[in-house]
Design brief:
Order of helices and strands: HHEEEEEEEEEEEEH
Shape: globular
Helix content: 10-25%
Structural class: alpha+beta
Number of domains: 1
CATH architecture: Beta Barrel
Amino acid sequence: MRVSRVIVLTLLTLLLCGAASATMVLPSSIEKMTLGSDLVVRGRIASQSVRAEGATIVTDVVVELAESLKPQANPATGSITVKVLGGTVGDTTMKLDLAPAFADGEEVALFLKRNGDRYLIYGLYYGACRIRTDGLTTTVTGPLYQTGQVYDFTTGRMTVNPVPFGGEPWQNFKARVLAVISAGAE
């Protein structure tokens, strides 16, 4: 009896492990992130509120916009709400490794996709860049600047990441995004 129980538990464990799946997000270039986004903005995290949405926990992040790079025809102004998966409601916490976490007051550059009256971060944590100002230098950093390779959706292959490892000046980031837009990619 004990042996059959162990076999049943082992089979059940194997079935459950086989059914589990993971999401893999490949890093993409800033150019491809710009192409895939509805909105590319620079702003400051104003506030965050966590709520349950069915069986999911989400954090609504209010971003006060400083600059809108895309779209250029009707740039976003004021503030927007970005929905990020994860957070804590009561004693229940939901955390996703690929979902960015923010601090109130933090300055960011975001690649966003519209989702009703809110936005989602395009490319999960790759679409959330941090902006750091140290004296006279303003630098964009984040996961896109921590990878040596990016996925090229055209060829279906990994290629060398064209951005400098560790970060780049805001003006270079901005010029890179605007170059994609001016090339007719918007």
